[in-house]
Design a protein that fits this description.
Blueprint: E1 2-3, E2 12-13, E3 39-41, H1 44-57, E4 62-66, H2 74-80, E5 83-89, E6 95-96, E7 104-108, H3 117-123, E8 129-133, E9 151-155, E10 166-168, H4 179-199, E11 205-206, H5 208-227, H6 236-244, H7 247-265, E12 270-271, E13 285-288, H8 292-301, E14 304-305, H9 325-330, E15 331-334, H10 342-354
Parallel strand pairs: 2-14, 4-5, 4-7, 7-8, 8-9
Antiparallel strand pairs: 1-11, 3-10, 5-6, 9-10, 12-13, 13-15
The structure holds pyridoxal-5'-phosphate.
Pyridoxal-5'-phosphate binds near residues 43, 72, 73, 133 and 157.
């Protein structure tokens, strides 16, 4: 066993652990996601898939997708059999789109900031079907999930250890999830508790075998969700966890951590969004750098895991969409979520500044 000498959490980033002491069966998710109008699903992809099925059933044949997106979003599109075409998203996240009448358009609100394209498209929503991926933005104070002018869906797993969870703003009758899905939910829950036990150890002992144990379960569960073609309600156990998480705390802490890191980095790194206006809840602190590989590697050496949003999807033609390449190649999301206090944020800043 090796010793890590910093008195901060010994792992920063990665899959969300769950601390039983932070759970409380006194839900405030209803303040963000309406109880009445909508449907809970096992994943964001399933929620998106249900929207695509609805659109197909009313004769939609084609969907326009942003050229900057997560590969996993393509899974439901491919399964739906809809014709798809990408539209341009530029390095500053602005977009060019000229949708044809009667088609569907997906837009993504990236990293917690409202995508201004939505304001334009909402005004023209009689000519096409607008779908908003609100995964990164649904906690923002002024984002409206319920609307009859656009479809919305979210994935909850990006913000907390919710095991599973997706939602769409349409009421659909779904069957209960299968036994296998319920079992996966329990395994994912166990892995999150295990990770929490591991990182809560005050002696900061590093035990790679212990780490592997929960990482393998996470990988197995993720693989299952990727392959799952069913359309079913979220398992109760996952919904209970969602109901027990303190979402107000998440909102407050993410903002506080983003602002602190921003102050400590003192403009030494370019970032993708410069201002954190009131009401915005950031997914992470997203920097843009020519040295991404090096920075990611060095942070990982000190057990700070910064994800890449996103690897370039294999189905995207890089020549036609070179406008998005800078995003795929240069951005890195530094974790600032609710698991971390000032101490960890200062540790992250110190590590980043040493690399500047
Ligand atoms: C912005 C965004 N929306 C939706 C999804 C899909 O969510 P899920 O993994 O719950 O299917 C992802 C996956 O990474 C994502 O990044």
């Amino acid at each position: 066993m090796k010793k890590n000498h910093y008195k901060v959490k010994k792992i920063i980033g990665g899959e969300f652990e769950l601390n039983i002491d932070s759970l409380n069966f006194d839900s405030n998710i209803d303040k963000y996601i309406s109880k009445e109008e909508g449907t809970w699903t096992t994943s964001g992809r399933q929620a998106f898939c249900l929207i695509l099925n609805q659109l197909k059933s009313i004769g939609v044949k084609q969907i326009f997708l942003p050229s900057f997106l997560c590969n996993s979003i393509l899974i439901p599109v491919l399964r739906s059999g809809l014709k798809f075409e990408f539209y341009k998203v530029h390095h500053d996240l602005s977009s060019d789109i000229n949708p044809s009448k009667g088609s569907a358009i997906l837009i993504i609100h990236y990293f917690g900031w409202f995508n201004p394209l939505a304001s334009d498209l909402r005004k023209q929503s009689e000519s096409f079907y607008l779908i908003e991926d609100a995964t990164h933005i649904f906690l923002n104070s002024d984002y409206q999930l319920n609307s009859d002018r656009y479809y919305t869906f979210v994935s909850l797993r990006k913000h907390a250890g919710t095991i599973m969870g997706g939602w769409l703003n349409q009421s659909i009758k779904l069957p209960e999830s299968e036994k296998k899905v319920k079992r996966i939910a329990l395994e994912s829950l166990a892995a999150r508790f295990l990770k929490n036990i591991y990182i809560s150890d005050k002696n900061q002992n590093i035990d790679e075998l212990f780490e592997k144990e929960y990482l393998n379960i996470f990988e197995y569960c993720e693989g299952f969700i990727n392959e799952d073609k069913s359309s079913a309600l979220i398992p109760n156990v996952a919904k209970y966890i969602i109901d027990s998480i303190d979402w107000h705390f998440i909102v407050r802490k993410r903002r506080e951590n983003w602002l602190l890191l921003d102050e400590l980095l003192d403009s030494k790194f370019k970032k993708i969004n410069n201002r954190l206006d009131n009401g915005i809840v950031p997914l992470g602190y997203v920097i843009k750098t020519d040295n991404r590989t090096l920075i990611k590697k060095k942070l990982a050496k000190n057990k700070i895991y910064a994800p890449i949003h996103w690897p370039i999807p294999t189905l995207l033609d890089e020549k036609l969409f070179s406008c998005s390449l800078e995003l795929y190649d240069k951005i890195l999301t530094i974790p600032i979520d609710q698991r971390y206090n000032h101490r960890e944020i200062k540790y992250i800043a110190k590590n980043l500044l040493e690399l500047h």
